[in-house]
């Protein structure tokens, strides 16, 4: 039984905590927060032991009637791995603490690739076996890795170009904009291409723009196929259909937008209305003049949740790739 | 002096009317409306003769105290050309009327290409000289033609892939959505590529998505360059910089989003705050591994306004391409 500590019980941390709690080979030994907000209250209600993140004010929790158990250092001897749920770049700052406590750690995709071994379950599970520091790549990179991984398995990719139409903020981050504008990321190509290469060796360039929505990212993907390749649209559809954590959606299901996908996730009875799978619009899949086109949507808060669970299994060599993915999928009800 | 009748004084029609009124070789002889709304009132205030579109109820205008002069058929003998400002596909229905009255007509990009000769001033002015029916291509196609036309002039384009991140609705069209979602156009490639080919012979495929903003469209453009071509980023910048109706913008001007561009247009003192030029983010222009990348923004209501004026000159062979563009630009204060 692996004891997992969630350092930063926020958007990602709380979701990973719930997912870890559903596994039989790992458990949550504690979660930490910086501020005594509604997430802190919920952690206690769920039965998790609540800790303060290093530097947080214990009294501010006490004043709200929230009992805390101290800091990570106080239970370090019982912790097998910390899953870092801190905002981007804060994880790197936390690394000193983990090192000084001698703890293994799993970071999120907002950190630089240099922080540890980059992880995506389907594309490079085995490279992460036994690693002390693992970085689960970002939601967007995970989305690219899921579908492009299918294509790379059958060795058809010559070059990929993808445009990432990004939601501007997480749903709760209501102080951010824009409310009526499109913001280009003027660094072209964007960082997403190089990031994908940390988990999948394909030739890719990406462009990113931010738009006024909070629900999901959308990727338009163009794959130049290798010249001697004779693959059909139906075969591509079949590849995606047979890969777990990728689902095909479309008009026939009434799914015409990212909002429809989020409503569908709620219908599935998913915890917090999450959509762990990458959704590919079936009708958008098309091959023309040697290029494969398709459009997919990525739920930024949750597609990386099952990846974090699998990263724990890789780190401690608990199970092989296929078995780990299957166990995680079953526990989370993944299609 | 060419007498121009605007049939449909709406989003496009009223802008083209203002632009025509600023030219010395053409004038507005009348404008028509279907409903007595604030555009109708403004037309009269501006001194334009107001007509009813065929089938509209004259009394509804009378009841609002708006004097109308009748229908297009009542002044057909004084009209040299009708500029059709009707919503998409309505122009095709109006064609029967124009033919029965023996009138020349200029249509907008919402019509099928088969309605007449497709027009973009920089790329195919001469093909439209003397045509009786001309279609000014859509705002998006105009945007693609403006910048890709520069590149085609120096013969560097092998293949273009572009993703059109479209504003979901015109600013006044406040009944439409989405308010918090991204809608993919699942027909991939989208119709924009074939439409561009009606005015510029380049190999292009496009993908389109709709996002919750009303201000401008944004295009991410990826141009695979011909193998033997040795062109630099600076040379591309210079091509765009020297082409009228294309401007370079960026961080140094404080222009980081489509909203910033619209605010900039207001600062320029433009009529209705319009931005006739295609705005290319200078920092986004980059060449990597034989592919040119750039991002541009398109003001959907107004980039086609100068094109309509030039289309009139081509139709009646009033001026050559360069002279017409220069006269139009000067009259509208185009950069």
Secondary-structure map with pairings?
Two copies of one chain form a homodimer.
Chain A: E1 2-7, H1 11-21, E2 26-33, H2 38-45, E3 50-52, H3 58-62, E4 81-84, H4 90-101, E5 104-107, E6 117-119, H5 121-124, E7 133-136, H6 139-153, E8 157-167, E9 183-184, H7 192-197, E10 204-211, E11 217-225, H8 233-241, E12 246-249, H9 258-267, E13 278-281, E14 286-288, E15 291-298, H10 305-315, H11 321-332
Parallel strand pairs in A: 1-2, 1-4, 2-3, 4-5, 5-7, 6-7, 8-10, 12-13
Antiparallel strand pairs in A: 8-11, 9-10, 11-15, 13-15, 14-15
In short:
Chain A has helices at residues 11-21, 38-45, 58-62, 90-101, 121-124, 139-153, 192-197, 233-241, 258-267, 305-315, 321-332; strands at residues 2-7, 26-33, 50-52, 81-84, 104-107, 117-119, 133-136, 157-167, 183-184, 204-211, 217-225, 246-249, 278-281, 286-288, 291-298. By secondary structure, the first copy, chain A, is an alpha/beta fold.
């Amino acid at each position: 039984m692996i004891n997992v500590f969630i350092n930063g019980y926020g958007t990602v941390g709380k979701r990973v905590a719930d997912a870890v709690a559903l596994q039989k080979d790992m458990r949550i030994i504690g979660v930490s927060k910086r501020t005594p907000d509604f997430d802190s209250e919920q952690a206690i209600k769920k039965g998790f032991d609540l800790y303060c993140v290093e530097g947080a004010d214990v009294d501010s929790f006490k004043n709200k009637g929230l009992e805390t158990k101290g800091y990570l250092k106080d239970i370090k001897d019982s912790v097998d791995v910390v899953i870092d749920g801190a905002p981007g770049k804060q994880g790197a700052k936390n690394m000193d603490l983990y090192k000084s406590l001698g703890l293994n750690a799993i970071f999120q995709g907002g950190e630089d690739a240099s922080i540890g071994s980059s992880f995506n379950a389907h594309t490079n599970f085995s490279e992460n076996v036994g690693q002390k520091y693992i970085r689960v790549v970002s939601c967007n990179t995970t989305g690219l890795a899921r579908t492009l991984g299918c294509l790379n398995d059958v060795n058809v990719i010559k070059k990929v170009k993808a445009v990432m139409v990004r939601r501007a903020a997480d749903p709760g981050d209501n102080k951010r904009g824009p409310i009526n504008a499109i913001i280009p990321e003027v660094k072209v190509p964007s960082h997403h291409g190089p990031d994908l290469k940390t988990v999948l060796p394909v030739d890719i360039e990406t462009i990113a723009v931010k738009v006024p929505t909070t629900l999901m990212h959308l990727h338009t993907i163009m794959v130049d196929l290798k010249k001697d390749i004779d693959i059909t649209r139906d075969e591509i559809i079949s590849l995606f259909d047979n890969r777990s954590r990728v689902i095909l959606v479309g008009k026939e299901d009434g799914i015409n937008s990212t909002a429809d996908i989020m409503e569908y996730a709620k219908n599935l009875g998913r915890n917090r209305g999450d959509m762990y799978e990458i959704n590919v619009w079936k009708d958008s899949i098309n091959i023309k003049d040697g290029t494969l086109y398709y459009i997919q949507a990525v739920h930024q808060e949750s597609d990386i949740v099952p990846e974090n669970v699998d990263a724990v299994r890789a780190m401690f060599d608990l199970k092989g790739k296929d078995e780990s993915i299957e166990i995680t999928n079953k526990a989370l009800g993944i299609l």
